[in-house]
Predict the 3D structure of the following.
Amino acid sequence: MRKLLISLLAVAGSFISVARAADTYNVDPAHTSLTFSVRHLGLTNVKGHFNEFTGSLTFDGEKLQSAQATIQVASIDTGVEQRNAHLRTADFFDAETYPEITFVTKRIEKDGDKTILVADFTMRGVTKELRLPANFYGPATDPWGNTRIGLTAIAKINRLDYNINYNPLLETGVAVVGEEISLEINAEAVKASAE
């Protein structure tokens, strides 16, 4: 009986140690950018970003366990207010009906030096699997004693997959707005204080 009790305590202790090893890092909006670009008239790329978002990453030691992010669609900013207003309408994001874009990992894979975040990506009410190759940097301690990590990631999506179907054509047949959207993330995240 004593041996069984010692074994159970050892197992419980290992679970507690695993739970304590998991660290959460919260995205720092002041040092993070979520940008996108899309072809306009087949001539150039128009860029924009989102100003309001939250996110977090959970690590067990050095191993990423999960990541999630929520973006406020109405915070879209391309530097031109008239265009921002149009992007918020049902022609594009329909921000009133679908106010958030979400990213929630299902699993984490490795591909050489890159970490692949395999996630459910939901935009305009449509959820599809997105494979986001990411590089991580750090950790580093900032001047105020906080532990930080960095993340960079680039991906492409097709806006038609998410029912963003606005598609007028020029006389030449070229789309006013391209279908492929390039996404770029440059993020810093701060380790949450231990409870």
